[in-house]
Amino acid sequence: MALPGERFHVLAQLEHLQSKYTGTGHADMNRHEWVVNQHRDTRAFQMSHPGMNTYIAVVENESRARTRFNLINRMIQPCGPPPEKHPLDDA
Amino acid sequence: MHLYNLTLQGQTAINQAIQGNFSGLPKSQQEIVVGRGSALELLQLDTVTGKIKVMCHQDIFGIVRSLLAFRLTAGTRDFIAVGSDSGRIVILQYNPEKTCFERLHQETFGKTGCRRIVPGHYLAGDPRGRALMIGAVERQKLVYIMNRDAEAHLTISSPLEAHKQHTLCYAMVGIDVGFENPTFACLEFDYEDADNDPTGEAAKRTQQTLTFYELDLGLNHVVRKYAEPLTDPGNLLIAVPGGNEGPSGVIVCCENYIVYKNLGDQPDIRCPIPRRRNELDDADRTMLIIATATHKTKNMFFFLIQAENGDIFKVTLETDEDLVTEMKLKYFDTVPPANALCILKAGFLFVAAEFGNHELYQIASLGEGGDDEFSSAMGFGENDAAFFEPHELRSLIPIDSMDSLSPLTDAVIGDIAREDAAQLFTLVGRGARSHMKVLRNGLEISEMAVSDLPGNPNAVWTVKKNIEDQYDSYIVVSFVNATLTLTIGDTVEEASDSGFLPTTPTIGCSMIGDDSLVQIYSEGIRHIRADKRINEWKAPPRRQIVKCAVNRRQVAVALSGGELVYFELDLNGTLNEFTERKLFNADIACMTFSEISEGELNSRFLALGTVDNAVRIISLDPNDMLMPLSTQNLPCPPESILLIDTPNEDGKGVASVHLNIGLQNGCLFRNTVDNVTGAIMDTRTRYLGTRPVKLFKVQVQGRSAILCTSSRSWLLYHFQRRFHLTPLSYANLEYAASFCSNQCAEGVVAISASTLRIIAAEKLGVAFNVQSFEHKMTPRRIAVHPTMPCLVVIETDHAAYTEVTKGLKRNQMAQDVEEMASDETEAALAREIATNLRERKLDERVFGAPRAGYGKWASAISLVSAITGEKHSHFELPQNENAKCLALVQFSKHPDAVMVLVGCGVNEILNSSEVEPSDSNYRPVRGCVYTFHLSPNGDRFDFLHRTETPLPVGAIHDFRGMALVGFGKFLRMYDIGQKKLLAKCENK
């Protein structure tokens, strides 16, 4: 179906995906955003898998509850504050 | 290539535990459902013996992430909601008849896997069972409305979304609001501002919020009702009972504080989490609550909260009308740190430990009276802390413990203890509660009694006097030339009036009819009536009885030469010989009757094995009496034979008959016998040991089981819907019989050498018998002495003090106290306190080791006997050196000596990217290798020298008479020298 508005339609779909699945990339994504997403995914993975959580807890000699707490805390800003936005970046 | 694996021992860690009435038993009999990673288990508590019983173990082929018990209003039975990695919410119900969990609902909402935004990590339920909320770590939250349909079946609605972008969730709980709209509380953090602020100010400014979500049942949608910023970040929420039972609201467990909060006029009630007095812990460390449990009855409720070091506090709330005025914290007891706590209504506390064995305690008192009580009304300031003195268990009594091998850091397998069967040496546990556990394949046997007998017994039986008796009356032991009869009472004594002939060895004996006994010996059959009248049947002259089979109504004896004589009990209670005798071509080696089916008087089959390598099934039907029905040929002569009925799964219908044959070559044959035609089918073989296999019928869990003896003893039993054939981890047995007395319902009396033993198998279904040896720090690596039964173990803990540092710290603390004293009386007091401080040592196995700051390490190396677990040598490394790897190296310069090389890191920092080198505590990171000489007879090691390396050592390996050492990106070869290891070459 070649509708006249198909080009916008694809864009709308992409936007829908981005809002539905946190962490979906886009053309203007910068290095920091990407890395932050990787870190957040990893931390979420580590705290969600019981075995992984135990593993980290043993290494750090912490309780599993604190390991979990630390991992979520690290999801807030895993790679420091975002870089200054260049004025030309904003379209 | 296809590789198959067989799980010998399923996961033993418990990640989630919930209590409830899952199988619909009376109210006080609560059960526990535990999530063990990839399996769900239902545990029941035997209140008589105080043992935990695993009723059901079900693999779910996924990862259990959260569990929730909920029941509908006015329901009596709890359902189980499971959050998993399946991208679905699953509602289960336990079916006690089939002993399995049944799926009632399964609603898909997302992708599989433990993902950031796929719900499953958090589950919360409305206390009235009207709605469930399932949440992800980030963003997504879904609410399902639960209800009943016309047939009172559970229904589930389509999901209602309560998503919020850029929001992390720390905890989730359903608030008790009575019958108002279901409300859920979540601990959230919104990182959107932080993500858009290059200065980093927003990240510091943003606070965690306590957010309330309300499900509007009328409009069928969820609203984010209210969000309140929190000053201290929290990690757990506890729902406070509401409606008629309490003030409602939540307790937020924050770092260092617990805070009561509610909607409306309620002011926050805040109380610090008490700390241990004079603990060596790092002062900057915050207190964190790791597990909670709620106990609620009609007129009272309290919470138990557990801090990281295992201390449990009892939390109670004081109310005035609907407002909470005061929160009280009382130190309760110290138990192992838990993943989950469950308080059972019958007065038990189940502790699903994070690391190590899970424990069950009886709650003897609720910790009333005494000191160590803290209240929010005491007016603690912002930086004030409450202090208490931990004590041994006062309110809890340990009842039972479940073995756990989690976390398992290293293991070796082999016959290191020289026992003819391999052992598994596993390093288990964390910190001061660590163990080396030795696993031996076999059922753990509990020994009730061992008594020496005069001479060497050949056989043993137990006999009841009367069919009505619940317990066995006699133990009959046969020797080479005599028979000994013992009565079973409170003590076991020799009986003189049993009527058994004492001067001859016995071939078999039993109760027969309702109240008479029969003894078969080589010259005849002795039938002892209840009134002590004795009828004897004499074997024909120069013929001897060699084997026999007896049941309640029938006796069959085999005479030498392969002749079978069959007797049946008539209505007057006399034994009548069947008119015909049956002659076989070969001597009879063993015989057995089939079990008498329900509603029948006699056994239908006689199975007999002959020395010409065959087993025959003989009919005992009056129409074709003693006619052979079928034959099974064997590779070698049979030694022993047993027919066992196996009831069907549901306990209905005709049981199937299993024919078990023990062979002289040490094999066990198992067949199914058609219970009409007697045909033998479906043969299975199993090798049991080097000696001929003897089979004995015993009772396990109310069903017939078989104890097999060979060079090892085995138990064949039915447990949790399948047969288990497991070796016994016990002394070798020669002969056995079932044993039932009022102390031991399902025991076994057995002969081992010249002793008579009464034993019982309790931990059914467990593959390994576990022996534990204690370690003081997390064991990391294990190595086996090349020739002697001993092991080298390295143990390392992060954020820990060595014994030396602990001593120094205590001394320092004591000195500080002494110096603070200003006058004479104070000084005397201070000296007393100081002495106490220096000598005060809490048992670290119970109370945990003191926690040092980040980047502090303690390590030790020890030589442990594989047989006794005794520590032959122990070497503690200085503070901040962490042993990382271990190898036994044979240097070509010293071909007769084995060296132990231990690679260490020095001043290593975990996640080093997070620590700035400019930090005042920064010390250069280095590594080192310790070399020890291991004595050839394995009783000691001696320190030789320490070699510095530029980076922490990650791996050491014996390589062509030298040691290959890996650190950083380098691989270096070392040879042994006088004062240190000598670097020979290095990769470029």
TrEMBL record, chain A:
Pfam family, one: SF3b10
One GO CC term on file: U2 snRNP
Domain of life: Eukaryota
Gene Ontology BP term (one): mRNA splicing, via spliceosome
PANTHER family associated with the record: SPLICING FACTOR 3B SUBUNIT 5
Entry protein name: Splicing factor 3B subunit 5
Source organism (scientific name): Caenorhabditis nigoni
Automatic annotation (TrEMBL), chain B:
GO cellular component, as recorded: spliceosomal complex
InterPro entries tied to this protein: Beta-prop_RSE1/DDB1/CPSF1_1st, Beta-prop_RSE1/DDB1/CPSF1_2nd, RSE1/DDB1/CFT1, RSE1/DDB1/CPSF1_C, WD40/YVTN_repeat-like_dom_sf, WD40_repeat_dom_sf
Domain RSE1/DDB1/CPSF1 first beta-propeller: 13-392
Pfam families named among the record's database cross-references: Beta-prop_RSE1_1st, Beta-prop_RSE1_2nd, CPSF_A
UniProt-annotated location(s): Nucleus
Record carries keyword Nucleus: yes
GO biological process, one term: mRNA processing
Record domain RSE1/DDB1/CPSF1 second beta-propeller: where: 445-759
Domain RSE1/DDB1/CPSF1 C-terminal: 858-987
Example of a GO MF term: nucleic acid binding
Entry annotated with the keyword Nucleus: yes
Keywords associated with the record: mRNA processing, mRNA splicing, Nucleus, Spliceosome
Family statement: Belongs to the RSE1 family.
Annotated protein name in UniProt: Cleavage/polyadenylation specificity factor A subunit N-terminal domain-containing protein
